[in-house]
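User: Fold this; tokens only.

Assistant: Input:
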Amino acid sequence: MVKRAFLIHGWNGRPEGGWRPWLKSNLEKRGFEVCSIAMPNPSRPKSNAWIRAIAKAVGSPDSSTYLIGHSLGCIAILRYLESLPPKTRVGGAVLVAGLVQNIGMFLFDSFFSKPIDWKAINSHCKKFISINSDNDRYVPLEHGYGMKEKLGAELIIKKGMGHFSGDEGCVELPIALDAVLKLAK
């Protein structure tokens, strides 16, 4: 079965921004089919539109499906997993600077308009790796600990990586590649 990876950018992001092109290229070199999804209206995101975009790109998810998100893309992944039919499983998810609650951005309200169904998410995905930085000015480290608590995620804390964004010079993210490969073993 071919391993498929789907990269989901965050608020105001784009598929060709930051470390996503590097990760896409490196996963493809290792035999993955990779889709870096252009999320709709990234500057004014709506949860339902982002979930539909992920669902359309993924098609039929299976145990060889891996989801990699950044920032708001992580909560989009979690909301997508919530929406899956019973007994549907994905191989794993890597959540880079992911959110477990709104960080005070009214633009993110649609992603947090209802409580997160952690039980449903865990029923569709058993393997999570959360990658967070000790100096992220947007997503405090407590969100990484939240992923660990709520999802049983392996938490990786990087020093001085900020928000892992291209604007901060993060154009390669080897730890994300290592995380995907670990989940796909």
